[in-house]
UniProtKB/TrEMBL annotation:
InterPro entries: ABC1_dom (IPR004147), ADCK3_dom (IPR034646), Atypical_kinase_ADCK (IPR051409), Kinase-like_dom_sf (IPR011009), Prot_kinase_dom (IPR000719). Residues 105-433 form the Protein kinase domain. Belongs to the protein kinase superfamily. ADCK protein kinase family. Keywords: ATP-binding, Kinase, Nucleotide-binding, Transferase, Ubiquinone. This is Putative unusual protein kinase regulating ubiquinone biosynthesis (AarF/ABC1/UbiB family). Pfam families: ABC1. It comes from the Bacteria. The keyword Nucleotide-binding applies.
Length: 433
């Protein structure tokens, strides 16, 4: 992993420079007679290719940011989405691996020079790569198949450097996710990702989730066998990556995984007092028995009292069309700042489409629906844009909002039809009161 700030900054700086160069080249091609659509498609493809190449090489915060963006690709218009869809989806599961010597040195440091005695077998070729570490397939000394997650050397330095630089380029990435504010996303990711550097904390999180979902018919969380600050060993699980289900799953499989994902998102705070805060397809798998396996618990929010009750009340008030009561609750919770005055009916009109999935018994999440929401709130000339700019997102709600939005993005990628109302009625405090 490249550690030096200057080297990483240069790579990240190549992104806006590359985009600027392609824009100038695009103007030239249009003057030469090529259609705007053809030039735009070519520019999108090349930008996506460069985005993947740079973020994938850097790993760290850069790649983590790419993974966070990838769940929002459902909001990008279809004519522009495909190149980003391909490039960003790759970021969810692939990256250049560290060298064998670097991997062995990290295991020596974390588990001691006799670490091989803990394993009956150990595959030195990584089975998967992620933003700040890679995973190896091995056999534990008692015969169990295990996954060994090893952090990249220099991940901590690289991560902090990336986030500082990415904050400077936030406007560049805004175009990839219309209707989503990038700077708050980066700020919140900074807080979560610093926590992810200590695998002992991640191991504790995973143990808590595994205990809460032990014996569950729908969700499997692998058990943790051992952990160190930069190495973690868990049970190995074979399954179909959710990205594959999105691409080629049957209608039944996509609906089933959509329901599993929704149930997990809404029920975990009540069952474990924790919220899995890294929703992207690379962290979920479909098992042969129909269950969903959840991995990667580095980013977790502590919600000992479950999901905030006011969110459930707000959803119910919006569905019931009670604009005045909704407005007063929003003001009390800090969504409307003191001194700000907005028409309650405008607020209801702005929020109503977002709570639409909680209305019918079944809701069909589609890319088209998410694109409509992104276009609606991102239209500079529209009333909803002005209303949205007048509202505030209190810090205590930022993480829940981002994770819910990310989960919704995956549901739209799945094109899943889900009984969201029953899931929310059961697990979201305040909704059914």
């Amino acid at each position: 992993m490249p550690r030096k700030t200057a080297a990483r900054t240069a790579k990240l700086a190549s992104l806006p420079l590359g985009v600027a160069g392609r824009v100038v080249g695009g103007w030239g091609k249009r003057l030469a007679g090529q259609s705007a659509e053809a030039v735009s498609a070519e520019m999108s493809a090349k930008t996506a290719e460069q985005l993947f190449a740079v973020l994938g090489q850097l790993k760290g915060g850069a790649m983590k940011f790419g993974q966070a963006l990838s769940v929002f690709e459902a909001a990008v218009p279809d004519e522009l989405a495909e190149p980003y869809r391909e490039a960003l989806t790759k970021l969810q599961a692939a990256a250049p691996p560290m060298s064998t010597k670097a991997m062995q040195r990290m295991l020596d440091e974390q588990l001691g020079s006799g670490w091989r005695s803990r394993f009956a077998e150990f595959d030195e070729q990584p089975a998967a790569a992620a933003s700040i570490g890679q995973v190896h397939h091995a056999t534990w000394h008692d015969g169990r198949e295990v996954a060994v997650k090893i952090q990249y050397p220099g991940a901590d330095e690289a991560l902090r450097s990336d986030l500082r630089q990415l904050m400077r380029f936030s406007k560049l990435f805004q175009a990839a996710v219309p209707g989503t504010e990038i700077k708050p996303l980066l700020t919140e990711l900074t807080d979560r990702m610093t926590e992810e550097l200590d695998y002992r904390a991640e191991a504790d999180n995973e143990r808590a989730f595994a205990k809460a979902f032990a014996g569950d018919e729908h969700v499997l969380v692998p058990k943790v066998l051992a952990s160190a600050p930069k190495v973690m060993i868990t049970e190995w699980v074979d399954g179909t990556p959710l990205a594959s289900v999105i691409r080629e799953g049957t209608r039944e499989e996509r609906d089933r995984m959509g329901l599993r994902l929704a149930e997990f998102h809404f029920s975990a705070p009540a069952r474990a007092g924790l919220l899995h805060a890294d929703p992207h397809p690379g962290n979920f798998m479909m098992l042969a028995d129909g269950r969903m396996c959840v991995i990667d618990f580095g980013a977790v929010a502590k919600l000992p009292d479950g999901l905030p009750k006011p969110l459930g009340v707000m959803t119910r008030l919006a569905l019931d069309g009670r604009s005045e009561d909704l407005y007063e609750l929003l003001r009390a919770e800090g969504f409307v700042r003191d001194g700000t005055h907005i028409d309650p009916e405008d607020v209801l009109a702005y929020l109503m489409p977002f709570v639409e999935p909680a209305g019918p018994q079944q809701f069909h999440f589609t890319r088209k629906w998410m694109q409509q929401q992104a276009e609606r709130v991102g239209d500079l000339r529209g009333k909803d844009f002005r209303t949205g700019r007048s509202l505030n997102l209190p810090p205590q709600y930022l993480l829940v909002h981002r994770v819910t939005l990310g989960t919704t993005g995956i549901l739209c990628q799945l094109d899943a039809e889900v009984p969201m109302r029953s899931v929310i009625e059961r697990w979201q405090p305040g909704f059914a009161d």
